[in-house]
From TrEMBL, chain A:
GO terms for cellular component: plasma membrane. This is ABC transporter permease. The chain crosses the membrane at residues 12-32, 44-65, 72-92, 98-119, 126-146, 175-193, 224-246, 252-271, 278-296. It comes from Savagea serpentis. The keyword Cell membrane applies. Keywords: Cell inner membrane, Cell membrane, Membrane, Transmembrane, Transmembrane helix, Transport. It comes from the Bacteria.
From TrEMBL, chain B:
InterPro entries: AAA+_ATPase, ABC_carbohydrate_import_ATPase, ABC_transporter-like_ATP-bd, ABC_transporter-like_CS, P-loop_NTPase. Pfam families: ABC_tran. Residues 6-247, 259-503 form the ABC transporter domain. This is Sugar ABC transporter ATP-binding protein. The keyword Translocase applies. Keywords: ATP-binding, Cell membrane, Membrane, Nucleotide-binding, Repeat, Sugar transport, Translocase, Transport. GO terms for molecular function: ATP binding; ATP hydrolysis activity. It comes from Savagea serpentis. SMART domains: AAA. The keyword Nucleotide-binding applies. PROSITE patterns: ABC_TRANSPORTER_1 (PS00211), ABC_TRANSPORTER_2 (PS50893).
Length: 327, 504
């Protein structure tokens, strides 16, 4: 009896603090293996910068997970917003103050379609967003004529362009701004999910949709809202990405989907008893970022990094699901 | 054909905390139709589950023509020629396979031996023959998902025929059927009886139809068989008396209250899937109104429709003389309606969340500051007050509600509607799965609400409870209100009579 109690406590403890513990251990490991290289302010900034776009997209995804949904279209949303904003500047000479909100607003059409398919047509979340993922990957490519857009390149019809990328816009993708945007996103989503009425509703819907509805929560409205917010952060991530790269590349956002999913799941498993949450997602992203950064410094080839990422994800998920009792 | 006699002798079974069957004897002859009836929890389903091999931990003896038979799992039951058609037909069918595949599912799944290729022609031929024998005209290529409920039942009956059963148990087969569908089913059942010489156990809550089709009727109550009669020698009234017995234990004595003006007025309400039809009722302030009726009569659907969870087709709902139009539960809550749903763990509470979040969920507005930021301190304070007020047994407000007992969970499920008072309180089977002590507390709580001038609707299939707590009762049968009675002028017999379809 005592023994099982103790092992249960250890599991509980690991569940709660496992990710933090892992991050600390890994940091210690790299600090001692790579003295003078790893724990320097420039490298820390480097790590934070490297995870910022993933994190921005992942906290949005976290909101969709909180209603027990799943937004696979975030990568495509990021691609769409990055194509839109670069084209606004390069093709149409739009000022920053109009281009930014307009790009985000247009990207939110994806959220509208997701919400429609999921809430009205009642397609399961995963499949609905899988379709919109493909659709908007295609839409973005069609819009850019199947190529990239950068300053000085002619339009699709061959006419020359004169648009430049505004200074303010280019700042978004540079340190410290890219890190600040990430931290603000994490903070806002944390505040929203854990300390606002709306976040509480979303978690309750995620926990038991029936009971939520019979408690008088407007379930449809909040599920739709979850996808709007998810797409919003994906759009923001896409814009930061466009600014960071300084151009719009083909399917630029799709590469961020799976790392974002991984960060959100590592975070919810290790640091939230399986409950998706913003801080956990951030720490999950940090864990992956630290590992990647350290391993590259230790001369592990970049093409082998996914082995590590996948293993961490498997461990994270194992820690949640293995300890869950089957009744 | 030779008659076979099946006997169950001195059957006992216990589940944690319940002695579900207490020495039951039951006899069934092939070629007869035997009705099995009893109130909810009487033990009829348990008895039939034993017969069809769903339980293995009972004591007692089963014999076939006086030879002992072992039935401890469904396969043994099937091999002895005993089959059951469950009430939930969809559980037993694979929706995206054809009629033929479903009829021969057992054969395809278990009797392929060393062959790997399915001979579709044979399958369809065999299925067609079985259906033909029963005079059922269903294309064998049709998918199950395209069939009506009645046709799905026919497929299940046809499937059981494949094994050439001697006994067939039909568990409430008519509950979801229309009158013409019921007629069709009866035609098939008579065929099974006369041409296949099958002995049939027919479970139903509808007394008139039992009198139409059965020869014998067995009544169960509290895990015992109380009577066993020839249909032609008995009457509906007599059967109702047998079902109820003559217990009269008083759980709770209601307070005297003054009844005020009409709070809720429902006129001619019909919902979209017709699970309630032409419902008219009213509840006055300070009044507790019961909705009586058997399982499947439409009580839950009525409760949920009033709570905005079912789209309304026609009719009106008025609260305090004002016509209310609400499209979802959120709007219903805003209009002052509260519902304590039947399935507590599934619908009433959030099992993985702490007690305090369960208390505050429906009224988070009260705990939000500007920008809708929640004050968890305030939430926990109010929850502490509610825990003390309702006597919820929990270490503290942070405890996971899933760890509390059923009665304490139910107190929280009710308590969440007390944080911000509603006008109308709807209770759907609020005492389901809670112990006697908690029941009495629940009655006190409901009585208290009424004496504060609330309008209370109390839906239950437990007649004693309804008679204990209500002032007036509407009786439902077949998704309609068939009778309105004053509690002080009625009896269990009268309510049971109307809720089983009796007419005077």
């Amino acid at each position: 009896m005592m023994d099982t109690l103790n092992s249960k406590n250890i599991l509980n403890f690991l569940n709660k603090w496992g990710v933090i513990l892992a991050v600390i251990l890994i940091i210690l490991f790299f600090t001692f293996s790579l003295p003078d290289l790893f724990l320097t302010s420039s490298n820390i900034i480097n790590i934070l910068r490297s995870i910022s776009i993933v994190t921005i997209i992942a906290v949005g995804l976290t909101i969709s997970l909180s209603v027990n949904g799943f937004d696979l279209s975030v990568g495509s949303a990021a691609t769409v917003s990055s194509s839109l904003i670069i084209s606004f500047f390069v093709w149409y000479n739009m000022p920053f103050g109009i281009a930014l909100p307009l790009a985000i607003l247009l990207t939110l059409i994806i959220a509208g379609i997701n919400a429609f398919l999921i809430v009205k047509v009642k397609i399961p979340d995963l499949f609905a967003t899988l379709s919109t993922m493909f659709i908007f990957e295609g839409v973005a490519m069609t819009y850019t004529g199947g190529g990239s857009i950068s300053v000085g390149m002619p339009k699709l019809d061959g006419s020359p362009t004169t648009g430049k990328l505004p200074e303010l816009f280019l700042k978004l993708g540079q340190t410290p701004w890219i890190i600040i945007i990430m931290l603000i996103s994490v903070f806002l989503v944390h505040l929203f999910l854990n300390h606002s009425k709306h976040g509480r509703y979303m978690y309750m819907i995620g926990g038991n949709q029936e009971a939520a509805r019979l408690s008088g929560i407007p379930v449809k409205k909040y599920r739709a809202l979850a996808y709007v917010l998810s797409t919003f952060f994906a759009a923001l991530g896409g814009i930061v990405l466009a600014s960071y790269v300084g151009s719009s590349q083909i399917n630029a956002g799709s590469g961020y989907l799976m790392p974002a999913v991984a960060a959100a799941f590592i975070g919810s498993s290790f640091a939230g008893h399986g409950k998706p949450n913003a801080i956990g997602t951030f720490v999950g992203a940090v864990l992956v970022g630290v590992l990647e950064n350290g391993l590259v410094m230790m001369s592990v080839p970049y093409y082998s990094l996914n082995i590590v990422k996948g293993t961490v994800l498997a461990l994270a998920l194992a820690s949640t699901y293995y300890s869950q009792k089957k009744f | 054909m030779k008659a076979v006699e099946l006997k169950m002798n001195n059957i006992n079974i216990e589940f944690p905390g319940v002695h579900a069957l207490k020495g039951v004897d039951f006899t069934l002859k092939s070629g007869t139709i035997n009705a099995l009836i009893g109130a909810n929890g009487a033990g009829k389903s348990t008895l039939m589950k034993i017969l069809s091999g769903s339980y293995s931990h009972y004591t007692g003896e089963i014999t076939l023509n006086d030879k002992p038979a072992t039935i401890r799992n469904p396969k043994q039951a099937k091999n002895l020629g005993i089959d059951i058609v469950h009430q939930e037909v969809d559980i037993a069918l694979v929706p995206y396979l054809t009629v033929a595949e479903n009829i021969l599912l057992d054969k395809i799944a278990n009797n392929m031996e060393n062959r790997h290729r399915i001979k579709w022609k044979e399958i369809h031929q065999e299925a067609k023959e079985v259906l033909l024998q029963l005079d059922i005209h269903l294309p064998t290529h049709r998918l199950i998902s395209e069939l009506t409920l009645a046709d799905k039942q026919m497929v299940l009956i046809a499937r059981s025929l494949i094994n050439k059963p001697k006994f067939l148990i039909l568990d409430e087969p008519t509950a979801p059927l229309s009158d013409t569908e019921t007629e069709k089913l009866f035609f098939t059942i008579r065929k099974l009886q006369n041409e296949f010489n099958i002995g049939i156990v027919f479970i139903s809550h509808r007394l008139p139809e039992l009198f139409e089709i059965c020869e014998n009727i067995t009544v169960m109550r509290d895990g015992l068989i109380v009577s066993n009669k020839k249909i032609k020698n008995t009457t509906i009234d007599e059967i109702v008396k047998d079902m109820l017995g003559d217990e009269s234990t008083h759980l709770y004595v209601k307070k005297e209250k003054t009844i005020g003006n009409t709070t809720l007025q429902v006129t001619d309400l019909t919902n979209h899937d017709l699970s309630i039809k032409n419902i008219s009722l009213h509840i006055n302030s300070g009044e507790i109104v019961g909705i009586a009726g058997l399982v499947g009569a439409g009580k839950t659907e009525l409760c949920k429709t009033l709570f905005g969870d079912f789209p309304i087709k026609s009719g009106t709902i008025q609260i305090n003389e004002e016509i209310q139009k609400y499209k979802n539960t959120a709007q219903a809550v805003n209009k002052g309606i509260a519902l304590v749903p039947e399935e507590r763990r599934k619908e009433g509470i959030f099992v993985d969340e702490p007690v305090y979040k369960n208390f505050t969920i429906s009224h988070l507005k009260n705990f939000s500051s500007r920008f809708n930021i929640l004050s968890q301190k305030k939430e926990r304070e109010i929850s502490k007050e509610m825990i003390a007020k309702l006597g919820v047994k929990t270490p503290n407000e942070l405890q996971n509600i899933g760890l509390l007992s059923g009665g304490n969970q139910q107190k929280v499920a009710v308590g969440k509607w007390l944080i911000s008072p509603a006008h109308v309180y709807i209770f759907d089977e609020p005492t389901k799965g809670i112990d006697i002590g908690a029941k009495a507390e629940m009655f006190e709580l409901i009585d208290q609400l009424a004496s504060e001038g609330k309008a209370v609707l109390y839906a239950s299939s437990e007649l004693q409870e309804i008679l204990t707590i209500t002032d007036r009762i509407y009786i439902m049968y077949d998704n309609k209100i068939v009778k309105e009675v004053l509690t002080k002028d009625t009896s269990e017999e009268e309510i049971m009579f109307f809720s089983t379809g009796g007419t005077k």
